[in-house]
Write a structure and sequence with these properties.
alpha+beta; single chain; elongated
Length: 400
């Protein structure tokens, strides 16, 4: 028998039992679609979580002077702007540095009442390092820093409270006993929910101005940005060593980064991907068992047909290939339909997702789903095919 004839017989056998073939294929459709979708969801979720963490500040390292509550503050051990300049100048893997002053609580009169606000100073690189979004106006510039200009930026929530129906740029804001001119409105690209200097109602002023009013030059938090994620651990160590070398050996500096959180997010994403893939493979195993069961029934029903074919000269390999082709067609068509459905679902749901969230379908998941689904069909279809190919013609012809 020619190979084309084997294919024709296999297709005719499936076509004669269309409903059974469709129902058997349905399991493969679900299994292959599950593999593509679970990988897509896992990859998208992982990217989203990591993107949110990195949105706080890419490749961020931050340090502060830890004060022992039982001891007096040693002024010479406090971090200063000179330390920030040393970090930028002497550490080759640092591309930017910034500093913030100690935050102060003050009151702002707005809406017929007083509201507590957080007031702190920051250097010029703070916006870039912390990924602040300037919604209106501008950020602090070198002139503001050098001249100690009484200008400020405020959070969007504070702007809505103080000037609910007006553009606040250029208007005055009285914080405690000091009046500032608002030059910008900002917000965090990714909210830290009050776990950083930036609170709900925050006023940001030039660092030099805060030095002038507080009478001190201490830096509350020193930020450094590494040039790549791989350099973050090294920069973390280098910043700590540099601070200890410039101050007393008894001083304690806490130098941290977001690598631990990022590693945790990646580990969670990997574990989620594995769990979801196991679920997808279980679905394919169930569909494979369904293929085997249906084909065993088919072999039993077609015992006499197989006996006639073997009686007129059909070889073992021809019978085997015929039933393997049937299994491959069921699994192959099912996996193709499942992949197409999985590709269509992200396109359909995209308008319902947040504007900054994209759902890319990894091409590797498509290939893996197709190959695994076809392999599952062939694997579970081999036993029925082998059983059919080993039937004896004399026994098959007597079967009723």
């Amino acid at each position: 028998m020619l190979p084309s004839e084997t294919w024709r017989v296999a297709i005719e056998a499936l076509w004669s039992n269309k409903l059974r073939a469709i129902l058997t294929t349905l399991g493969v459709v679900i299994g292959s679609a599950c593999i593509v979708l679970v990988v897509t969801v896992a990859v998208t979720g992982r990217r989203y979580v990591i993107g949110q963490i990195e949105g706080v500040g890419a490749n961020l390292v931050y340090a502060n002077y830890e004060v022992n509550p039982q001891q007096a503050v040693v002024r010479s051990n406090e971090i200063t702007l000179a330390d920030m300049e040393a970090v930028k100048a002497s550490l080759p893997n640092v591309i930017a540095a910034a500093a913030t002053s100690q935050a102060l609580l003050r009151n702002v009169v707005a809406g017929g009442g007083e509201h507590a606000v957080t007031l702190f100073g920051a250097t010029g690189g703070f916006q870039v390092i912390r990924n602040l979004l300037i919604l209106r106006g501008r950020y602090l510039d070198e002139i503001d820093e050098e001249s100690r200009s009484k200008v400020c930026l405020i959070t969007d929530e504070l702007a809505a409270l103080v000037y609910p129906n007006e553009d606040p740029i250029g208007k005055s804001l009285r914080v405690g006993e000091i009046s500032f001119t608002i030059v910008g409105v900002f917000k965090e690209r990714v909210g830290t929910f009050g776990l950083s200097e930036i609170q709900r109602y925050t006023v940001l002023v030039p660092f030099s101005l805060m030095q002038y009013y507080t009478g001190g030059n201490a830096v509350e938090i020193l930020y450094a940005q590494a040039d790549s994620p791989q350099d973050v651990p090294l920069v973390t160590i280098q910043v700590g060593d540099l601070l200890r070398s410039r101050h007393s050996g008894t001083a304690t500096y806490v130098v941290q980064n977001l690598s631990a959180i990022l590693d945790a997010a990646r580990s969670i994403g990997t574990a989620l991907t594995i769990v979801l893939l196991v679920i997808g493979f279980i679905a394919l195993m169930v569909s494979g068992i369904g293929i085997m069961n249906i084909m065993l029934v088919t072999v039993t029903e077609r015992t006499r047909e197989i006996g006639i074919r073997k009686a007129i000269g059909a070889r073992y390999s021809e019978i085997l290939y015929q039933f393997l082709i049937e299994a491959m067609l069921i699994s192959g068509i099912g996996s193709l339909v499942g992949v197409l459905i999985a590709l269509a679902i992200p396109v359909v749901v995209r308008p319902l997702l947040p504007g900054n969230l994209r759902v890319p379908v990894p091409w590797l998941s498509v290939v893996v789903a197709f190959v695994v689904a076809c392999s599952t069909g062939l694997f579970f279809g081999y036993l029925p095919a082998d059983k059919a190919a080993r039937l004896q013609p004399t026994e098959s012809l007597r079967y009723e």
